[in-house]
Specification:
By secondary structure, this protein is mainly alpha-helical. It contains five helices and no strands.
Amino acid sequence: MISGKADATMDEDKGLRERVTRHGEDAIGKLAADLLENPMVTGALSAASETRERAMRAQEVAMSALNLPSASDLERLTRRLRAVSQRLEGIEDGLDRLDERIEAVGSGSAVAHRLAGIEAALARIEAAVLAKPRAVPTVPRSSAR
């Protein structure tokens, strides 16, 4: 029996807590809506926002006059640096692929065999050219006069 009373009391506490919480949330929501509808509050919020914008512009002008970068300058520079970094990574990847292709082609025995054949043919041509006696050009007699 004691257990039944304790459970009932806990249920009542839980129900009361939920009602108070719900009532508090409703009250806060109504207060916020009333504040946002109040022209004085909205005017103060917009004035604060305008003041913030003017302060940011004044800060940028002051930083520029001192030849110091502003936060927006640093952000722009960071974005450009990221873009350059990404492009550089793309170039590095392309060079890696090109290097792999060159290694694959260079290590092929067919290419080495063909180059050796070309070198041998050039050596034979060179030997043949060097072996022939050079003919001395003769000048026709008719033009010698």
